[in-house]
Amino acid sequence: MYAALLFLIAGEFISLHHAVSCYGCKTWACSPLQKGRSSHLSQVLQSSTRRCTSLLDSSDIDSRDIEFLTTPSSLKHLSCIEKKVSRNSESSWNDQKTAAAVGAIVFATVLGYAGDIFLGPGVSFFTSSVGGGLGWKLLGGDSVRENDIPVDGGKDKKFVVDVPARLRAILNRLSLEGHIVRKVEPKIKRGEAERLVGLIHDFEYIKSLKDACDKCLETGKPRRLRQSYSRTLVDENSYEAAMDAVGLWLHATDRVLRGGGKAFVLVRPPSHHATRSRGMGGCLVNAIACAAIHALEINGIRSVGILDVDAHFGNGIANCIEENQRIRYVSLHEHNRGMSLGGSRPEYDPRSPEEADNGPSGNICNIVLKKGEGWETYEGKLMRGLAFLKDCDILIVAAGFDAVKEDNTSGLSLVPEDFRAIGHCINKTMEKKPIVFGLEGGYTHHMGGGPEGMGGVLGDCVAEFIEGLRGV
Ligand SMILES: [Zn+2]
């Protein structure tokens, strides 16, 4: 019995390790970069004031005021995962698992006897456990994982971490903490969003994104954004969700520039890996870059700072803003994780995550973190990044929560309370300047021992961060 228990644990361990190590890397190995990107981009990016908007006197601003915003379509993007999970849970034990269980028992028995005969009686328990785990794994006992989605007609399965449940967990936690999250009309600023997306991204890419989502509508199945190698998936709701996310970012930017305080945009899909010519790492459209350009078009705004505290390199933001000296970008990211290999494939992803790469305009500041790094060293690096941004007129924060120790998509070691300290550092440095925050990564909504409905470790990180921002 002990042997059976151990081989199941060993099998699950192998499965989990595989599951968490496979997200967010090598998505660039696809078709070549579209040639002939719109040449007017840099002129447009450098354009100055376009509209008249009066800015609030900073003395009127209450730094504790944070407006939380979301759109209904954010929970629809890849909601097929949830249907898949519920279908699995109804029939979680299938023929393949039965075959794997039988195989595991055979492996455990054979290796147990072999250990007994060749290595001595005390070793058989160990060898039978290893044999059981191997048998389970080799025969596909864990082939259906919770977040696997069958794509491209069901021949292949892709593991997805950006599930609607993570956003729902955050919304629920905020509600329980007494914060009001305002649902904004999905079509808000649609025309403006499309105009800015057209400035940031290649036309061919946006067309291919829309075509991929339209095909999902026809087939009713999710698919890869590109047909080869891509790990980034879309379904029939993804284009709408991405454009609504841009619209909400623009709305929030207007909100803080006109009304002061802070706004927190709680949307999916995230932005920071989406380059000009391709979506990757679960990101489809770079709403953050759109918001930065939008802010620069408002009268009186001369410079925008972007702080990216997601654990992975924001290669997409770096690529989208690299030609604009009025935007400064700071990314704190773990070395050699996720999109950190971008610079080695310049034809697909021109910006490198290394500290030496400041971009062609010198407006990029990469701050590299080592595996296992915690607050002791993180704080100094964060303050170095904030010093690079503190003179900007508005700050945009790519708020990822995957640097927390429990998050398997990174090797960093922050604890939830450190996010309160990050909030304090941002508050202290930027004082009463307008700030827009937006959700990026963070996948620990199902981890942690807190009460159900509190959003797990992810909920703790977000709640701590907000308290820090409010100066609590
Ligand atoms: Zn991330």
UniProtKB/TrEMBL annotation:
Molecular-function annotations in GO: histone deacetylase activity
Alphabetized UniProt keyword annotations: Signal
Any one GO BP annotation for this protein: epigenetic regulation of gene expression
Disordered: region residues: 338-360
Pfam families documented for this protein: Hist_deacetyl (PF00850)
Gene3D superfamilies: Histone deacetylase domain
SUPFAM superfamilies linked: Arginase/deacetylase (SSF52768)
Leader peptide range in chain numbering: 1-19
InterPro entries, per database record: HDACs, His_deacetylse_dom, His_deacetylse_dom_sf, Ureohydrolase_dom_sf
Domain Histone deacetylase: start-end pairs: 163-445
PANTHER family for the chain: HISTONE DEACETYLASE HDAC1, HISTONE DEACETYLASE HDAC1-RELATED
Name of the protein in its database record: Histone deacetylase domain-containing protein
Organism annotation: Triparma columacea
